[in-house]
Amino acid sequence: MATTSLNVTVDWNAVEGQTKNEHFGINVYRAVADAGNSKYRSNMNHMSPGIIRFHNMDYMKDSSKDHGLIDTENKTWDAQKVINTIQASIDMFGTDQPQRMFNIPSWPSWMDANNDGYLDSDRFDEYANLCADLVKIVNKDNKFGVQYWEITNEKDIEYFSIFHTKSGWGKLIDPNQPNRLDELITIYNKVAEAMKAVDPSIKVGGPSVARPDLTPFYEPFIKGTLHNLDFFTYHYYPTGSASTSDEQVFNATNSIGKYTKSIVDTLKKLSPDREIPAMLGEYNISWTWETHDPRMTNNKGAVFDALSIIEAIDNGAAASLSWNEKDGSYGKTSYNDTLRPGGQLLHLFNEYLVGNRISTSSNNSNITTFAVDRPGSHKAYVLINSSNSAQEVAVTFNNWNSTQSNVSKHIISDAGYSQELTAWDTVNNSTIFLPANSVIFFEDGSLDVSLPPTNEPNPTPPSDSQGNTGGSDVSLPPTNEPNLTPPSDRQGNTGGSDVGLPPTNEPNPTPPSVPQVSSSISSPENISAGGIPSSYTSTLHQQSSPGNLSSYNQPDRFDNMEFSSKPKDSSTNIASLLLSSGKSVSQSLKSALDTPRNISGSHVTDKTAIGEPEIAAVLNPSNDSQAPLLDLRKTDLNKDGQVDNKVFVNFYDVKSHAVYNNTVGFYKIANIDGAVFDSLTGKLIPPGEKGYAQVALEQRVLEVELNRNTGQLMTQLEGGALYAPYLIASGTAQEYLSNISGNPTSNQTPQAFFGYGVGNPDNINHVKLLGKNQLGFEDTAGGGDRDFNDLMFKVKVQNS
Fold this sequence. Notes:
The chain is an alpha/beta fold. It folds into three domains: 19-354, TIM Barrel; 357-443, Immunoglobulin-like (Sandwich); 575-798, no CATH class. Strand 10, helix 9 and strand 11 (319-322) form a beta-alpha-beta unit.
């Protein structure tokens, strides 16, 4: 136990502000799928959030899917499924109803005809009308009175950040390809006006930014939407690696305060006469579910949540909503509806911490205090120990004269949750013992509180694509949920359908030497505010680091933690790349980059017919990490009804923003799980198994070896086959093979990374689909700056 003298002081006569129920909210990721689940309803009632946010990227899918709300055939909403979802959320809370926020994360597939991830310009009004129809169903036809309506989710990534250098702070990557922020502003305004035409009483806001650091995005966005912006939402996830230390994760919550203050100040500056609330719409530890970070489901996650909420409140946030209520990686409850420590924390905060916020102080950064004077002269006091060792803290209370001999004590620690009555004398001006990584509540308003104990004092990392654990915690695995999310999501953030990634989970150019924990702003999903780039069709995250930001003279408000939004809810985050002929080349603003270039960067005249690739979701629910694939299994370019034996593949627009001289290529795989055939044993080796890297690289396509000097390469590949990408950081595949065989051919020590995260030593994906036909690679172990622009290229197939 620490022997350092630790002191905290609470002055119960010094009121610093107020806390509201909305400060203790949560994202309801499974609100649609679990609408009829009695255990789910009971847990939600127990957590009693002050505000819930309906969010799942799958809302925009057909209602035949678990979370889908779209009647695709009639191009409208499945009204009955929407009604059932909202009604269930009302029934589960009884008389203690939360505020409700409904997020419309994106648009249905038919409004993105060329599948490039952007809303088609001739569909803006149609999308606005679709959103207005949802308000009509919910508030006009059924009188549900949902107050908050949020437009889009983490679109700052694909509409702004990916077009710029320096994590969005720099100049355009291509001067001929401007960002699309103006489009996003136009979309928002059209939707907001259409919604309010249906119900003028509602509040409309957004845009759910993955990059709360990025004033070059959000300040113009606020200016452009000011007359239609009733609230502003942003997300925060500090890391994309389970190896990030506890200390770094907990210290990262300071960034919530910094970004919140910056956003609040900007809103006040741009709207001095009308208050526009800032709301922390999502937060959790990891911007991607793929880390399976156990901290998000144990006592350390509760510590992180408590610190995050306090930072948001202290810096002016009007609401904060954790990600999320139920899943394998992030949830405050598990898939079999077991309440986790984070769920207990949310209950306690909502039950006892609404009232006047009292002045507190601590002389140690590992000990955080929070106190509230509640209605009826009841008081509640919280001590948070974010260190990995137990502490004894001397507490001084000024002006708390309890009339009771006992107070209730609630403990969240690695032993789970417990409660007890403790003598007032042991709390008032005395020394209190705090277990490592714990949250301790004292309150005098309810001496017979009975909370269900958690069954998960130390949850184990989940092992499947949904983030489920291997034990009894997974009796209700979801369908169609790659995660989290992404989102996402992040997600969930992931963040999956919602692969939260998150977290997250944004790509941006930074030197590969930047450490994993840095000040990047997505995912995100990921400055590093992005999480993990999923694709243009959903959340695309990128980050940067304090190191790289400072080198660009960025504002000193950034700290030394990566910040991102998980791609927690991005169903396309695990999509594979199907390259085949079909549509004509897009005439959108991307046409400048779609034209092949030679090494010098000048345009190449290409008179052959290059079919524009299409995306196909090659999914395998049993695998916890999918890769973007070059899928030629069904390619029939000459339209003779037969799969082509040979296919010309054009790799072009090769770019690199890396320090390392990297090499990228492809190798043939036996199935979408990424297994390779070992000719010596006659067996398949899946990613992550011993010998996978060697066998995969020995079977690489020798004709395809791309680096920063390639510019463009066209070759002929065998049709009817699957190919997976690899990256050799600071070397070539042959140098890597020579190195692992004990016969190095250079002084370098190349590292091999694959599209399948489980095949990498850090268990993180290093290859992401950046656009309809573009791949991006990350060359640093641990995810680096997660910008996925260390090497990028586009791919098209053609018949000659």
